[in-house]
Amino acid sequence: MSFQYYETLQDKSKQALINIVEQIVPSISNDDLSLIISDVSKKSKDPKVKSGDIKSFVFIGEDQDKKANFSNLTIAKLKKMFQIFISREINDRIALKWRFYQYLKINRKINLDTIQINERGVAENSVNFVIKTKDDTTIFVIIYDILNPESYAQGLDNIIKFSKDHKIIPDRILIVAKKSHRTVPIDEPLKIDRVSIEPELWIEWVEERKPYKAEDALLIEGIDTEIAGFNFTSMDDLLDYVYKITSGGQVSISRHLNYFSEEEKQSYDEELIWKGIMFKNKT
Amino acid sequence: MGFKRVKKYELDKQIATNFLGVPLRYEEEEKTQELFKDVKQESVSISKEGVSEIIIKNQEFLDLKYQRDQKIQSFEGYGNIAITNNSDKDRIWDARLSISGSKYINLESENDLNLGIVEPRSRKTLKYNISNKEDLPELLKIDEKINILNEEVALVKSPEENGGYEEKEVELEGLDSEKYLLIYGKENVVNYVISLTNTSSVPIENVIFRKYLHPGFYDLKFESYEKIETKISSNIFEWTLNQISPGRTIALTIYSKITPKKKEEIKTGRIEVSYTLKDYLISGLDVIDFSAYSHAMHAINKKEKESEPNKWQCSLIFENHSSFNMKLKSVLVLDESKSKNFMDLDLNYQEKINKIFPGSRFITDIWEVKDENEPKFARKVDYCVDHRLKRRSFVTASLEDDAFQIVGIEIEKEISENEIKSFEESIINNKITIRNIGTIPIKGILVKEVIPEDFQPPKAIPEFKFTNSSGAYTPKDSSLQKTPPDDDPKKKHTMELSLGLKDKQSLIAVDEFLEMEYPLKAITPDYKKDYELPLEVLSYFPKSQAFGFKSYIVVKNELSETQQPELKISHKRRNLVIEKEIFPGRNSNEFAVNIILKNKSNVIAENVVVKDTFPKSFELVSSNLDNNLSKPDDEGLYSISFTIDEALPFQEKEIMYYIKNISEKEVQVSDLESFFYG
Question: Is residue A106 part of a domain?
Fold first, then answer.
């Protein structure tokens, strides 16, 4: 059992699903969960979520200290959560959007200030996130499942229109996709109001030879937590997350083999997978 | 999670399931891979200026872990040589790299590395590992001294210096390294004096230095005479220095305090440092030469002289058709049979003229040849693309931390009697208990006691009884000193008992105890004096055996006044008065006898028996206490006795009994003033 498909789970009871979903890191907050559920069930958003300063957008990520309670979710919704964040077997734009949102929480190079998310779900080829960073950079994000030259061109047109409508010129444009055709002209700059911006293509990347598996527990020296391996698709992601939650310095990461598997064991083999020094930036 | 920014060239060429369509491939790239497997080619951004460059960037990365004695505990080092062609259009070929000093690296081709073709906007990278752990150049020396300041702690070279005992060198079991001792439950002032010395021959740059401290430390302060950018967060000190010149030392001092409240491992805190060495390679590798060709044209211009037929004026032209600067190294022009030399230029060291800029040309001096036909020459032109070499070493180093040892000692003193009689000899059992509640064995102890005057100190060690957790114990090394050196109870004595100071073994292991008992003889204790029984214990912990002598940390513990056992001298002297009065009774033949017991002492009078007599002509009517009446004796007297169980100090007890005359004879009171016993 490697959390590859929901159907291969032996125990699909509500409590078992809650136990697994609770292992998702970075942790999902109340607002996050409310928006994810309204998104996947295609219902209108929870009115309690703070509206954004852009029409049809809401602020997200401001209640990260309030960890979501999954016990109120139905098995069907827990199944969706599993398929989006754990097995990653759903690869549509909604799933990709929320996985990218989780990635934003740990990305070291995007110093988040605010994130606004389009409350209309994932309208095709439209701006899905407007991100402001602490160094006052504005980033537009469009999510695709499969990017082809036509949808790419349509997306850029929509960005120009969005920019003019809301009088916001982005500093960066992120085109996020599960897969991309090689012929997408990603190196051609986009001009918005005489400002030239080179769009960035971001692909969901799964490192095939990463030194841990989805069902392994990852132990970071000095932190009394076992992080599930399914949260990360590459060593870089894991290191970014560790960088975020530790105070830096000498860091070592070990894996407990098959710790989260459904197989009962008395003890787990431990194996060191990374050791090094992390110097944290001053900011 | 897990997203990655993808550049256009990756989208074009990389084989991945995320990319749909056929990847572009380059034949040349494949050839290069075959020629030299260690070479990795990557795309680079192009030069934005007019002139392109071949940049050879040689970087080395070293991760060092030092033990506290400065020896290298672990070492990992690798390097890479990146040859970058940042031209937009020109490739270079037959690129060769000559290196020296490569005995510490694992590049197989020792001297001449053939890199083949380097495409425009691409980079070839050679990676190697560094293996000269034993022959590493001097770099940044990190030194840390930890000073613990505590009033209860003293440092002595040997117990002898403190106790005045005979000096004798003994070896200690595995305790020869320096120890850092903290006193349990007390505030310990800990100062870290850290120095960073550039022992290399080049400036050390971009130094980031970190010192980690246990979270239990407080009142953290930092001092340095250097202008250093400092940041303190969560008990982590971070300093940033731009540069440390060769031979220079940067000294830093951290002042801190800690109060150990539980028996836990407290680390001294590791040190991490990162820095760079510009234009310096740790492995000793040196790029001696780089040569490569690019687009260039050379030709021999042959012109028949206008005024002299068959006489030719010739010159060699070299034109740089690439976007790189080129170096023209040599020009050799020979006749067809290669027997005659027309031009032999060695321009290797003529930097002013051998540099050929993009688009420019070099023309040799003219030489003349006589020939009926157009002359033909054999020529050899040696040139290469110019390059720029950048070298830098990146070092991360850490200094292993140590653990503080916690010194925890509990002392207790008990006496078997808390009260003795004044001016009477009595023996008190004196028991001292020393418990080791720290994390390090106690090597030896010196027990200091004051035996007050009127008491006799123990005469010798055999009077002592020692016990530890295994039962009765006989110390291998013990001595007793008394000052003055006699047993005269009229004098106050200072007694010093030393145990285990010269023994190899530790005296009290961790979590163990030692009890010592001896009889203390009170000779003439005076109730008017206050006798104090103080106790001071000096515990010896080995600190180091450096410089051929042992040094010890001595920790002093003493009982406070409230912890000292109290000895009361009771002064008990009896003083009883028994009064007797006879009163006439209600009738003329009745009498009341009143006996009063007065306890005028400060001691309790117990079981006082009072006995009286009265004539047999009387009979007992009643009494206020139980009585014991005997039959009349030969003299015709009844005996009556009373027992008073207890008369407290300064208490009066009354006995009253009534008697009645049963004879017809009149009775005088004087007849009742009988013998009284009590």
Answer: yes
